[in-house]
Amino acid sequence: MSERVVPPDARRRRRPTKQGVVLSEELIIETALRLIEEHGTDALSVRRLGHALGADPSSLYRYFRHTDDLMLAIADELIGRTLRSWRPTGDWRADLWDLGLRMHAGALAHPRAAVLSAYRVTGRLHEIQAVETILGVLRDAGFPDGEAVRIYHAFVDQNLAFGALDSANSALPRAAREAEADVWRDTYARLPADTHPHIAATARHLAHSMRHSSYPAALDLLLSAAAARLENGRGDAGAD
Fold first, then answer.
1. Sign (positive/negative) of CA torsion 120, 121, 127, 133?
2. ∠ CA 211-217-223 to the nearest 5 degrees?
3. 115-128, pLDDT tens digit by residue?
4. Could you tell me if 78 and 115 are in contact, meaning their C-beta atoms sit under 8 angstroms apart?
5. Please, are residues 107 and 213 in contact by the beta-carbon 8 Å criterion?
6. Same domain, 35 and 145
């Protein structure tokens, strides 16, 4: 897509496409998500999208100025899907634990899109809602503003990083994933204790743990550290 811009009040298409479907932002985003998971970044072209929608490619400019505009909308939709499935309980640690796991699961549900969008800032509706929500959880728990921002930043970046890492891993062919996991059993577990005493001592734990994502453990460590800081009365000194 190029930088052509169609005024917002002229964007809505009232006539159905060749497949009898009326275009909308939601339909375009859903179709783009499906194509990305099937074909990767090459799916984000007006030609491929237009063909999948049964529409003239130029009609997509009524909704998105260019492919990056669409990519930001896709990233924001992934955030929105997580928020729509999450219900806070009022227990800040339990709520962030649940939200973090839901965000991570959402990335794994759309691994290619997650890898593409992990480093983006959308400035759109769902992202703004997520920022407001997470900061609200932390401030209501009693964290001072500067501390709330630090924890929010660490929480979100940790989640995005693990989402991208684990999504990239899940996109590997199954045989490749299994072969890499077997390295911990076939190589590391056979290292002799006289040359690699620490690996040898923990080999069975490595062989089990390294087959799985460490995100739950990392999230638990982050929330435990945040809880300790709150209990110890750590403020936001030096934050400003």
1. positive
2. 165
3. 989 999 999 999 99
4. no
5. no
6. no
- In three-state secondary structure terms, 48 is helix
Spatial CA neighbour of 205 closest among 194, 195, 217: 217
Per the listing, tokens 């991570």 go with 104
| Residues composing the chain | 240
pTM (predicted TM-score): 0.84
State the pLDDT at residue 56. Answer: 87
Please name the residue that has the structure tokens 């799985």. Answer: 212
Q: How many domains does the chain have?
A: 2
For position 5, what pLDDT does the model report? 45
Burial of 123 (0-12, 13-18, 19+ CB in 10 A): exposed
Between these two residues, 43 and 164, which has the higher pLDDT value? 164
CA distances from 77 to 98, 139, 233 (A): 19, 26, 37
In whole angstroms, give the CA distance from residue 162 to residue 221: 14
49 lies in the same domain as 118: no
Which residues span the domain enclosing 48? 8-65
User: In Å, how far are 116, 151, 175 from 161, measured between CA atoms?
Assistant: 12, 15, 24
Q: Are 58 and 46 in contact (CB under 8 A)?
A: yes
